[in-house]
Amino acid sequence: MGGSDSPYHPTSKPTTTSTTFSAAVAGSWKRRNMFSFALLSLLCSLSYLLGISHRSSSTPTITTTSISCLNITTTPHSTLDSKSKPLDFASHHSADSDTRSAVATKSYPPCHVSLSEYTPCEDQKRSLKFTRDRLIYRERHCPTKKEEKLKCRVPAPYGYRNPFKWPASRDLAWYSNVPHKELTVEKAVQNWIRFEGDRFRFPGGGTMFPFGADKYIDDIGELIDLKSGAIRTAIDTGCGVASWGAYLLSRNIMTMSFAPRDTHEAQVQFALERGVPALIGVMASKRLPYPSRAFDMAHCSRCLIPWAEYDGLFLIEVDRVLRPGGYWILSGPPIRWKKYWQGWERTKEDLNAEQTSIEKVARSLCWKKFVEKDDIAIWQKPLNHMNCKKNRKLTQKPPFCPAQDPDYAWYTNMQTCLTPLPEVSSNDEVSGGKLAKWPKRLNAIPPRISKGTVAGVTAETFQKDSELWKRRVSYYKTVNNQLGQAGRYRNLLDMNAKLGGFAAALVNDPAWVMNVVPAEAKVNTLGVIYERGLIGTYQNWCEAMSTYPRTYDLIHADSVFTLYQNRCEMDDILLEIDRILRPEGSVIIRDDVDILVKVKRIADALKWDSQIIDHEDGPLEREKLLFAVKLYWTAPSPDHEDDSNNDAS
């Protein structure tokens, strides 16, 4: 708990009463008829005899997990049915004995303390191999050789403490968790961040809102409607420490904040430590990892992005991810240059030319200048492209993009062409479909589904999926009692979000979920997730995520290891989970029992406290659940760097 000096003792490991198979079976077993019971008992007995026969000839090294017809447990003290006969699952649900031995004996030592903030795909040494043009060297450049991938556990810095609980975390973070004072000096007059003893304080200021983000957002709210629920999702380009997104949360607006890993050391890391959604990212040559028509509002407050350069490429990309009727907000240079030009140390002519160029690009995208007042200028994207297409007969710049998938955005190059909106029949119709206001938006049928553009998903399957995840999350909370405690988990990750049902079921908790749609998923559902008023990103889990170590309090993985089977090494994915999970953070993995047995061996080698339990529908389901807790450990004290610390080794 933030503010407490006492050590944290996680109780989120499943308890005996709630996690053994016998407890889970009790309700469902009685409902089955005597014939099914007799048949199952016969099969269990036969399997047991076969297992005894096999074990008499060979004794392979296996995981400590023991599995019976009625029970799966990871400790010798779990409650077992005294009449049930345990089966040796290892001989039937694992790889051959040689592979088992190799997995069981593999270890993952702690990485060196110098890697405590390691971000594999934004490694500063590797980035220098790439061109600085358009900041391409700050894009994702992941390890390509097997030997480049870490096979060790990234340590937390010495003295790491559990973050403050939300909403206190919005304003406070422990210095020991992010030991960087650079911004307290560099941005001192702008009220970004202050250092106070053993902690940082975030006053809510920014380069263009020194009086605080709340006051700045109030100023925006006088120009556009921020109260009715019409604006739910926003994107902040070049977010700093994400104060704009942090203060929008109290207005039920969810912001995706991003900034590069650059000279502003740890700005995204500060945002995440505050409990605010953020990713490492940059506008350079690749599309932002979001679908088209995702955000109701986009924002740049002195983000230093050259909007008018490269034929308006970056503003064209904002247009792709901006929803029809959505707003783009710009403050800082060159807006109100007549007042600030001297402080910005630029000429009047230069600033005037920049604003003129931005206005020209915005008009070419068929945006209209909504308002400019004081330090803020706002443009609005049209509801559809009917008039825009007529105007294209007079001017062809930028042209409409040829037929393509506007939602695909994983290592996809940006283009200097306008992404066409879905066809409409009248000027006042919203392209792609009108969205309900928040909170009705969450459970309303998303337009992408109602219009039949998501393969295999109908309104009926969407509603069933929503109910399914309500039931599943309710079951999770009976297993992990801390999931039901407000404030225990703040930053959550769903590694295979599908329709966003896991996040939707938790929407009333003081938490947020980063919904990931894997680039390898058969159906791209990220657009649906955004139409529900949730946020997320694309990701290939054979690579590292664009985030800092210790980002998430809880990570959920539904069928991730089945999806990536034969694509990459299982331990690489689990090491990445370990990297981005906080000490004492929790993991919930759903998958086939064969896969989970292998996952558990690696989890044990990672020093996780883990247990396999039954599916919520009972023991006859092949899909099982693994609940795990990452144990607390840190890098050693600077005075004892050669020593391990807190069970690290």
Describe this structure in words.
The protein is α/β, with parallel strands linked by helices. Helices cover 27% and strands 16% of the residues. α4 (97-105) packs parallel to α20. The chain is globular, with a radius of gyration of 26 Å. The model is unreliable at 1-33 and 52-104 (pLDDT under 50).
Structural class computed from helices and strand pairing:
alpha/beta
Counted beta strands: 20
Side by side, the strands of the main sheet go 9-8-7-10-11-13-12
Shape: globular
Beta-strand percentage range:
15-25%
The assembly state of the depicted protein chains is single chain
Fraction of residues in helix: 25-40%
Largest sheet: 7 strands, mixed
Q: If you compute it from the alpha carbons, what radius of gyration comes out, rounded to the nearest whole angstrom?
A: 26 Å
Mean pLDDT: 85
Low-confidence stretches: 1-33, 52-104
Distance between the termini: 25 Å
The tally of helices reads 20
Topology:
Elements: H1 16-19, H2 21-29, H3 34-57, E1 66-68, E2 72-73, E3 86-87, H4 97-105, H5 124-127, E4 172-174, H6 182-186, E5 194-196, E6 199-201, H7 213-221, E7 233-237, H8 243-248, E8 254-259, H9 267-273, E9 278-280, E10 295-301, H10 313-321, E11 322-331, H11 337-340, H12 348-364, E12 368-373, E13 376-380, H13 386-391, H14 447-450, H15 459-479, E14 491-494, H16 501-505, E15 512-518, H17 526-531, E16 536-539, E17 552-558, H18 560-563, H19 570-580, E18 581-592, H20 593-605, E19 608-613, E20 623-630
Helix pairs in contact: 4-20
